[in-house]
From TrEMBL:
Keywords: ATP-binding, Kinase, Nucleotide-binding, Stress response, Transferase. It comes from Genlisea aurea. This is diacylglycerol kinase (ATP). GO terms for biological process: phospholipase C-activating G protein-coupled receptor signaling pathway. SMART domains: DAGKc (SM00046).
Length: 358
């Protein structure tokens, strides 16, 4: 089912425009007391921790001149494992431009921690009368440096704000570091990391700070699986309460007595079958042997290898039961809007993958 609407920023080309470093820094950087307070709140997992309170009291004491908020405050989430060697180098460059406290490495700070404690810190300060914190919370924009999976992960965590009425939900811009980068391409941020990236970083941050906002639909997925197995689920999914099947749906197979249920959100597409298995294989290989995934070209070669192994191009499916048609393991039912009847959709024997496209 379709979920909440997430804002995304549309990129616009301003190649050749020189962005002064100090001018950009002034436009996007939090005042020091807020940078430190947000970081302390995340590390302590407490927006009322002593160190956080001290930063508020020091900035709002009698006789202290109020600090002006930046014009377009930004926070960056970067997957330093994406983009091969460019990931760590880009992280250093971003920290030079806007400070370490506003650039979060996803291997250290998860986006839900930022939402739960970092943004909550700004909201708490605003509730106490801090006008600078209030304006930053209202104007904040998010930058995600990574592939489609990383972008989806961050957007999913930001979507929790909409669910809990913690508005506005910050719009999100993308620095493409992944292999496919379909979402980045769709919104005008490009399909690959630029070759002259060091010169492009300032322009990209400025584009995100000033770009127009467009809407992106998100879709909610519920997954029920036989219970009892321990699964290494991705960040995009989280466990949820058991969700019974619609009683109007008649299933011609025996259902397991015990199930494990998961829920998640997708923005590009939700895939079952051969291409999903290829992506799954690549993900685990990169985690186990990160030295093999050194950049987009190497990643695409690995993807091609997995595609051949899975029979996407020429491996005969009869040679491996795992490559059999989805028709043998899948049933698809759909219910139209304003209808109570479920309709089974036939799956041809030649189909190797099914994609639900946003």
């Amino acid at each position: 089912s379709r979920s909440s609407v997430i804002d995304s920023l549309r990129g616009c080309s301003i190649a050749g425009v020189k962005i002064p470093k100090e001018e950009l820094r002034k436009k996007i950087t939090f005042p020091e007391y807020l940078r430190l307070a947000v970081m302390e709140a995340i590390q302590a997992k407490d927006i009322k921790a002593a160190a956080v309170v001290q930063h508020y009291e020091a900035a709002n004491a009698d006789g202290v001149e109020p600090v002006r908020p930046p014009e377009s405050p930004l926070v960056v989430f970067i997957n330093s494992r994406s983009g091969g060697r460019h990931g760590p180098e880009l992280k250093i460059r971003l920290q030079e431009l806007m400070g370490e406290e506003q650039v979060f490495d996803l291997s250290v700070v998860k986006p839900h921690s930022f939402v739960e404690h970092g943004l909550a810190c700004l909201e708490h300060f605003a509730s106490l009368g801090d006008k600078c914190a209030k304006e930053i919370r209202e104007k904040l924009r998010i930058v995600v440096a990574g592939g489609d999976g990383t972008v989806g992960w961050v957007l999913g965590c930001l979507g929790e704000l909409h669910k809990h009425r913690r508005l506005p939900v910050p719009p999100t811009g993308i620095i493409p570091l992944g292999t496919g980068n379909d979402l980045s391409r769709s919104f005008g941020w490009g399909g690959s990391f630029p070759f002259n990236w060091k010169a492009a970083v300032k322009r990209t941050l400025d584009k995100i700070a000033t770009g127009s906002v467009v809407h992106l639909d998100s879709w909610h997925v519920l997954i029920s699986m036989p219970g009892g197995e321990e699964l290494d689920i991705p960040y995009s999914l989280k466990t949820t309460e058991e969700t019974p099947l619609d009683q109007e749906l008649e299933v011609d197979t025996e259902l397991p007595e015990k199930v494990s249920c998961y829920q998640g959100v997708y923005y590009n597409y939700f895939s079952i079958g051969m291409d999903a298995q290829v992506a799954y294989g690549f993900h685990h290989l990169r985690n186990e042997k990160p030295y093999l995934a050194q950049g987009p070209i190497a990643n695409k070669l690995i993807y091609s290898g997995y595609s051949c192994k899975q029979g996407w191009f020429f491996t005969p499916c009869s040679s491996d039961p795992g490559l059999r048609s989805l028709k043998n393991i899948l049933r698809i039912y759909a219910k139209k809007v304003n209808s109570s009847q479920w309709e089974q959709i036939p799956v041809p024997s030649s189909v190797r993958s099914i994609v639900a496209l946003n």
